[in-house]
Amino acid sequence: MKFWQKESKSRSTERRHFITIERIRTENENGYTVEKKDTSQYVWASVETLSEKQRLDYQNISVAATHRIVVNGYVDVNESDVIKFNNREFEILTIRDVDERGIDKMIITKEIRPK
Fold first, then answer.
1. Angle at alpha carbon of residue 56, lines to 13 and 113, rounded to 5°
2. Which residues of 31-67 are buried (b: 16+ CB within 10 A; e: fewer)?
3. In which element (H, E) is residue 98 found?
4. What range defines the domain where residue 59 resides?
5. Residue 68 placed within a domain
6. Structural domain count of the chain
7. I want to staple 44 with a disulfide (CB 3.0 to 4.6 A). Which of 4, 15, 19, 112 is the partner?
8. How far apart are CA 70 and CA 109, in angstroms?
9. Does residue 7 fall inside a structural domain?
10. What is the pLDDT of residue 9?
11. Maximum distance among all Cα pairs of the chain, rounded to whole angstroms
12. What is the pLDDT of residue 12?
């Protein structure tokens, strides 16, 4: 490798964290509101803490974000799901398809502190 070439990580080393995505269903068959953990997906992801500058940028658009999680594009995830990672829970704020190609999904999250 030449000195001017940037060494990049492969996707397998970037996504070194194993996370759980839990789908929470809030309505039963009778139409009543019930919180129930419905299904879980276990996927590899990249979990990064946002820097202070990035947090300020998100606060300008009224989002109190703490972490960015990147998963493969085939993962079925929506904004009502909860992400679990190392005994921590994250609320999903936004989901974005990186480059609009279906290869990566960037999930902006907020850590849920236990009460």
1. 70
2. eeeeeeeeeeeebebbbeebeeeeeeebeeeeeebbb
3. strand 88-98
4. 43-115
5. yes
6. 1
7. 15
8. 11
9. no
10. 56
11. 65
12. 54
CATH number reported for the structural domain that contains residue 94 in this entry: 2.40.10.270
Question: Which two three-digit tokens encode residue 30?
Answer: 């009778």
- The predicted pLDDT at position 1 comes to 45
**pTM over the 0.90 mark:** no
Whole-number pLDDT of residue 5: 46
Q: Is 98 domain-assigned?
A: yes
DSSP character string of 55-96: HHHHHHTT----EEEEEETT----TT-EEEETTEEEEEEEEE
Amino acid 115: pLDDT: 65
Per-residue model confidence (pLDDT) at position 4: 46
Query: Pick from 81, 78, 50: which is nearest to 65 by CA?
Result: 50
Q: Is residue 92 part of a domain?
A: yes
Q: Give the whole-angstrom CA distance, residue 66 versus residue 23.
A: 21
